[in-house]
Amino acid sequence: MSLDQNQIDVYKEKVGEVGASLVTSGMKVGLGSGSTSACVVRALGRRWQEEGLRFIGVPTSEETARLAQSFGIELSTLGKCPELDLDIDGADEVTRQGFHLIKGLGGALLREKIVRYAAKRFVVVVDERKMVDNLGDHTPVPVEVSTFGWEATAKHLEKIGAEISIRYKKVSVRFKEDCEDFFITDGGNMILDCNFGLVNDPVKLGQSINDIVGVMENGLFIDCTDEVLIAGQNGIQHLRK
């Protein structure tokens, strides 16, 4: 599907507004990371300032926290709010059947997954380019790993079929031995982008990845999505399980 950047930006803003409309006063809300999630936060910020909407946000990244704070949104942590009413986040791929996800190209996958499982309801906001029949269609599986011994962790990931690219601060390039310019997550870990091709059994693959010592978490979000908002040429689709 070929869309210019202006169209994509319009789609993201529209789906962000619809996502933000799900928040009501008094809620405790997980605030996702990435460009589409930022549209949700901006829409929530406008509602905060113009409508007097009041809720507590738990951000999944430092970048999201800074954006929310710029609007005056009240923020908290899972330590103070261990149970959330709603979590709204984006995704890099969403399957049309089952709403399985790949997340983490923005680098916040561990915190995103922790926040998701603290929420009673998980809503994903995407544009129509992100919808796929099988995970791995055009996106690698991000894997967050400890910086200590990451080389050994990478070798084990290769043994289960991963073609690995290290995430650098600017770009992700083919695995090489020495580089000091790694992308480091808010939690102090590295990201290894792992291409497994089409993922036919995401549950098995996710377990195999997480069984490797040194892996913090993987970007497969399986059977955990309640609703998907999809922006496209036909407006906003609101899909529920």
TrEMBL record:
Q: Name one GO molecular function term.
A: ribose-5-phosphate isomerase activity
Query: Which E.C. number(s) belong to this protein?
Result: 5.3.1.6
Enzyme class of the recorded protein, top EC level: isomerase
Entry's InterPro entries?
NagB/RpiA_transferase-like, Ribose5P_isomerase_typA_subgr, Ribose5P_isomerase_type_A
Catalytic activity as recorded in UniProt? aldehydo-D-ribose 5-phosphate = D-ribulose 5-phosphate
**Residue positions of the active site:** E112 (proton acceptor)
Where, if anywhere, are coiled coils annotated? none
Which parts of the chain span the membrane according to its record?
Answer: none
Task: Cite the CDD domains for this sequence.
Answer: RPI_A
Keyword terms of this UniProt record: Isomerase
Pathway field of the UniProt record reads:
Carbohydrate degradation; pentose phosphate pathway; D-ribose 5-phosphate from D-ribulose 5-phosphate (non-oxidative stage): step 1/1
Asked if the Swiss-Prot or TrEMBL record annotates the protein with the keyword Isomerase, the reply is yes
Residues recorded as binding substrate, renumbered to this chain, are S33, G34, S35, T36, D89, G90, A91, D92, K103, G104, L105, G106, K130
What assembly does the database describe for this protein?
A: Homodimer.
The entry's family comment says:
Belongs to the ribose 5-phosphate isomerase family.
What role does it play?
Catalyzes the reversible conversion of ribose-5-phosphate to ribulose 5-phosphate.
Give the protein name, as stated in the record: Ribose-5-phosphate isomerase A
Can you name the source organism?
Commensalibacter oyaizuii
Provide the organism lineage as a comma list. Bacteria, Pseudomonadati, Pseudomonadota, Alphaproteobacteria, Acetobacterales
Gene name of the encoded protein? rpiA
